[in-house]
Amino acid sequence: MTLQECLAKGELELKASPHPERARRDAEALLIHVLRRNRASMLAHRAEELQPDYIDRFNALLARRSAGEPMQYIFGEAEFYGLAFRVTPDVLIPRPETEHLVEKVIELTAPLPQPRIVDVGTGSGAIAIALAHCLPVAQITAIDISAAALAIAEENAERNKVGIRFLCSDLLDAVVGESFDMVVANPPYIAASERNSLTIEVRDHEPALALFAGEDGLSIYRRLVPAACAALAPGGYVALEIGYGQADAIQAFLDGSHFKNIEFTADLQGLPRVASARRS
What we know:
The chain folds into two domains: 3-67, Ubiquitin-associated (UBA) domain (Helicase, Ruva Protein, domain 3, Orthogonal Bundle), CATH 1.10.8.10; 91-279, Vaccinia Virus protein VP39 (Rossmann fold, 3-Layer(aba) Sandwich). Helices cover 40% and strands 20% of the residues. The protein has helices at 3-14, 23-35, 39-44, 52-66, 71-75, 99-109, 126-134, 147-159, 200-205, 219-231, 247-256; strands at 77-80, 83-86, 116-120, 139-144, 165-168, 180-185, 232-241, 259-266, 272-279. The strands form two sheets. Strands 5-4-3-6-7-9-8 form a seven-stranded mixed β-sheet, sandwiched between helices. It has a two-stranded antiparallel ribbon with strand order 1-2. β4, α8 (147-159) and β5 (165-168) form a beta-alpha-beta unit. α1 packs across α2 (23-35). The mean pLDDT is 95.
């Protein structure tokens, strides 16, 4: 089978997948991954006969993509804030909109000579590692309840050559008695009732522990906001990624824990994406 025939077969198969509009692009990306060539080289040798092992590997990846597995898991890698991260089904795939959260933390901690930051629910480590990359003087702790996720985060920290303390903990339990200048989190915030509205990539392949937060999507915030208040030094900040339609509820949680200077930062679609507030 030639390279061109493989591509045509892959495109046809993926047209019956959950995202037929990406069939050609995904087929090319999968074959590039198998062949370890760039796109120009691959297209320049379309008449080349492929070895059977390449065809077998390509077919195996096609089957995974046809079942809705995210390309990032197939490749084992995702990009966030210009950095490369290893990702597996043990961790959420970093989203571009979470970069707004990183930017807000950088803005709020800029006046501090050596900010003490704790990232709650670190997952792949994307937020903590991006912050460590941009704020080399910061003292950063990254927490996750999943030991498997922490193993990936530690690997990503080594890969990106940053020093971070990693702790396995339910929210801030492991750092009770410590004091921080910033608590940052992108917690689970999807309501369990919304599960069927999600794409197959998210619903069937990303870790439920990192996605769902009770019947209303707010169960983690209810616990995290007061815990963050207790962990912050006077004048310290909390910064949280939030979901669609959650701003009013988050405002009430922050008000209830006596936070001041409550602010919401919009994403590129104009929707509130980051909630930040200052401990009095």
